[in-house]
Design a protein that fits this description.
- With about 160 residues, this protein is an alpha+beta fold.
- It has 3 helices and 7 strands.
- It has a 4-stranded antiparallel β-sheet with strand order 1-2-3-4, with helices on one face. The chain has a 3-stranded antiparallel β-sheet with strand order 5-6-7, with helices on one face.
- Helix 1 runs antiparallel to helix 2 (about 40-60).
- The protein is elongated, with a radius of gyration of 22 Å.
Length: about 160
């Protein structure tokens, strides 16, 4: 049975929204317990509950990019967007630096692979978005486990 290796990219905004939302819900309970009969504490608690619930729900809806591979396929998933490739089609990879890191895959001839766009904004894209908190070292370890070498930047294009 083939073993699937999986890497979930960390999403900082998701954690911040979840912690903030749940903290506001706890503050609403504390506010109500401290002064249950005062109208201002009831209004404040209601506002904290509304904002806390909104933040928590939005935090749960944020999707994290997931990279997976097994012997038959390499998969990238972000919510409902999925890219599945045969590992033999991938020749190399590179991690694009920046505020939001991206994974660029090249075919066996060294040309960048093209993927359908996310949310129909473009006709095609040459990279798969990760998150800003994704450690390039972790991506390198994941791709090494998949058997995909990094792109050699010293090669000249011809």
């Amino acid at each position: 049975m083939p073993e699937t290796v999986r890497m979930v990219c960390p999403v900082g905004r998701k954690h911040v929204e979840l912690w903030s939302g749940y903290t506001m819900l706890v503050l609403a309970v504390v506010t109500t317990v401290l002064a249950p009969a005062h109208w201002a504490s009831i209004v404040l608690a209601a506002l904290l509950v509304a904002i806390g619930c909104a933040l928590a729900v939005h935090g749960h809806r944020i999707n994290a990019p997931v990279l997976e591979f097994d012997e038959q396929e390499f998969r990238y998933t972000l919510g409902r967007y999925t890219v599945s490739l045969d590992p033999e089609q991938i020749g190399s990879y590179h991690v694009l630096p920046g505020r939001i890191r991206s994974l660029g895959l090249c075919d066996t001839t060294g040309r960048p692979m093209r993927f359908p766009s996310l949310r129909n904004r473009r006709t095609a894209r040459s990279h798969l978005p990760l998150t800003g908190m994704t450690d390039p070292g972790r991506v390198e370890m994941f791709m090494a486990a998949a058997g995909i070498p990094p792109r050699d930047r010293s090669l000249t294009r011809g």
